[in-house]
Design goal:
CATH topology of the largest domain: BirA Bifunctional Protein, domain 2
CATH class of the largest domain: Alpha Beta
CATH architecture of the largest domain: 2-Layer Sandwich
Order of helices and strands: HHHHHEEHEEHEEHEEEHEHH
Strand content: 15-25%
Structural class: alpha+beta
Number of strands: 10
CATH superfamily of the largest domain: Bira Bifunctional Protein, Domain 2
Shape: elongated
Helix content: 25-40%
Distance between the termini: 71 Å
Number of domains: 2
Number of helices: 11
Strand order of the largest sheet: 1-5-6-10-9-8-7
Length: about 325
Amino acid sequence: MDLDALKKRAQEESSAIKNLSDLEKWRVKYLGRKSELSLFFDSFKNLSLEDRKNKGAQANKARIFLTSLYEQKKKSLESATTHFHFFDITRPGKKIPKGHLHPITLVLNDIIRSFEKLGFAVVLGPEIETEYYNFDALRIPRNHPARDMWDTFWLQKGLLLRTHTSPMQIRYMEKHEPPFRIIVPGKCFRFEATDSRHEFQFHQVEGLMVDDNISLANFKFIIEEVLKDIFKNQVTVRFRPSYFPFVSPGLEVDIKLKNKPRGQWLEVMGAGMVHPDLFDTVKYPKNMWQGFAFGLGVERIAMIKYGIDDIRFFFNPDIRFLEQF
């Protein structure tokens, strides 16, 4: 068998091939089980050992050549098909997928914008906090029963993952003189079981306003304006007494959606007038300043605003959930 003639003939025929269907026929003819080359290999059993070695090497080179020829032609045809396919200009355009802001980010942006309209500046604080700022300076000394309210992730040497954003009240007042009004958005951590209403990590927006003539009336007005702005005037707001060691008196703020008049009241914030002891801690002159502080739960606002019934959705990277926003 003349292998050189076979290769030449195969190369000439492959050059004329214009589609993948004809290429497959070519492959069967020159590389299939019943091809001339395969029959040539089958005839080796009648040859001597020396002849088998010589002709086998030549036949292998011919098969490698034909296989390479086939692969190159196939790649060329597939490339031509990809780049020159028919395009129907009358078809509607395909919508390109876009990224989405996370619902927590959306709600945080709404909260920040609402407070900025009322003159509040945005301040950030550390997530790794000291025991002093997280507890002691806020009138929650060691062994105080109020510490049970904050299940804490303790680190080394008196450090911890902050359980609330309230430490920034002390940190900010230590370095700034009133009057001022600030909010402190950030992530907090508590060592507690996870369920549909609780997560070991969550977001809070701390607020602090200090001036020479601040009362609960100022607080109520500002908070009502902010919540109505966030929910597009579709909420009713109520205030009720509560206890937090670093405010006096203490309040909790509840809201109810107007489109659900028979729905339940939902707590969204703890707050109150800044306790005088905090002013003493940061060395403000006695009886000169007054202020209020609050901590707003971001996930709680997002769950109410978007009708989400499980807080764990916010930390689950399920694209089906994220694409809804």
